[in-house]
Automatic annotation (TrEMBL):
Residues 235-257, 337-364, 377-392 have a biased composition (Basic and acidic residues). Keywords: Coiled coil, mRNA processing, mRNA splicing, Nucleus. GO terms for biological process: mRNA splice site recognition. Residues 235-392 are annotated as: Disordered. Interacts with SCNM1. Residues 258-321 have a biased composition (Basic residues). This is RNA-binding protein Luc7-like. The keyword Nucleotide-binding does not apply. Residues 112-172 form a coiled coil. It is found in: Nucleus speckle; Nucleus, Nucleoplasm.
Length: 392
């Protein structure tokens, strides 16, 4: 990995996906199912065992240091309970490793010569001392790299003591077996990483194994699994306690309601008096509503009667005015017709007088008679119309 890529990864791990306004990487969130929850908790076996003899390759789920930084920031305010997913993942991985260890043990038992239980116990003691020496040597190297010289010297003293015990155990084991069988290499399967260990391995080989990345990676995974089990158990216990508290609160509220109902039932007088008060209040409210309704009805009736009387008087007045107007119009029309007739007759008489004076006198007499008759009829009609208007 180049220096630029390393710097980019460090910035992602520190600042998350929102650094430099990079919106393309925000399309997937750390809570997505496609994201590896073990990677968010820094315990994915694909990361821990990368570059070892048991390298698992690339994980099927998304690994991103920026998403881990986002999760670490968000987990301070909210508990996402991703420990359960990571615990299930590590449990399945460790169970698979333990199955491989058992298969390797069976294979060794089939290929190696059978020995008695006493000799096997002595060989197991030599293996245990080899493991102890290897762990101590790995610790010495780590302390020396850190610059802690005094602690590394103390651990080297413990290594010398373990080596002396190993020599004694090997002498006991050699005396319990024939020389031909003792020269054969006795193998043993490591309980941590399933690797093969020899009974006659030197200190350098033991230190390389117990201080190697494979063995230490399996130790880290197993320790992380135990830690996750403890954290999950604590959180589940906390959740169970909260559920119990909520249940107790509900039961307490229900008991309180039941007690109140029982107290009401034990005091029937109070309940009766309350019922009586309620009934009285209801009856009073009903009576008030009835009174208000009756008053409103009376007001409406009065208003309607007044409006009807007003409308009647107005209609009567309108009918009177209309009859008078009609009679006036009729009289005007008749007077105008009579005027036109008189004018017409006068013009005709003039014409006749100009033509013939003798018949003109006769015509005048006839016109006078006709005029008097028409005037009498019009006066009779006017008198009858005035009588009808007065009656109306």
């Amino acid at each position: 990995m180049s220096a630029q890529a390393q710097m980019r990864a460090m910035l992602d791990q520190l600042m998350g996906t929102s650094r430099d306004g990079d919106t393309t990487r925000q399309r997937i969130k750390f809570s997505d199912d496609r994201v590896c929850k073990s990677h968010l908790l820094n315990c994915c076996p694909h990361d821990v065992l990368s570059g070892t003899r048991m390298d698992l390759g690339e994980c099927l789920k998304v690994h991103d240091l920026a998403l881990r930084a986002d999760y670490e920031i968000a987990s301070k305010e909210q508990d996402f309970f991703f420990e359960l997913d990571a615990m299930d993942h590590l449990q399945s991985f460790i169970a698979d490793c333990d199955r491989r260890t058992e298969v390797s043990k069976k294979r060794l038992a089939e290929t190696q010569e059978e020995i008695s239980a006493e000799v096997a116990a002595k060989a197991e003691r030599v293996h245990e001392l080899n493991e102890e020496i290897g762990k101590l040597l790995a610790k010495v190297e780590q302390l020396g790299a850190e610059g802690n010289v005094e602690e590394s010297q103390k651990v080297m003293d413990e290594v010398e003591k373990a080596r002396a015990k190993k020599r004694e155990a090997e002498e006991v084991y050699r005396n319990s077996m024939p020389a031909s069988s003792f020269q054969q290499q006795k193998l043993r399967v490591c309980e941590v990483c399933s690797a093969y260990l020899g009974l006659h391995d030197n200190d350098r080989r033991l230190a390389d194994h117990f201080g190697g990345k494979l063995h230490l990676g399996f130790i880290e995974i197993r320790e992380k699994l135990e830690e996750l089990k403890r954290v999950v158990a604590e959180k589940q216990e906390k959740r169970n306690q909260e559920r119990l508290k909520r249940r107790e609160e509900r039961e307490r509220e229900e008991r309180e309601k039941l007690r109140r109902s029982r107290s009401h039932s034990k005091n029937p007088k109070r309940s009766r008096s309350r019922e009586h008060r309620r009934h009285r209040s209801r009856s009073m409210s009903r009576e008030r509503k009835r009174r208000t309704r009756s008053k409103s009805r009376e007001k409406r009736h009065r208003h309607r009667s007044r409006s009807s009387s007003r409308s009647r008087s107005r209609s009567h007045q309108r009918s009177r005015h209309s009859s008078r107007d009609r009679s006036r119009e009729r009289s005007k029309r008749r007077s105008s017709k009579e005027r036109f007739r008189d004018q017409d007759l006068a013009s005709r008489d003039r014409d006749r007088s100009s033509r013939d004076r003798s018949p003109r006198d006769r015509d005048r007499k006839d016109k006078k008679r006709s005029y008097e008759s028409t005037n009498g009829r019009s006066e009779d009609r006017r008198s009858s119309e005035e009588r009808e208007a007065g009656e109306i």
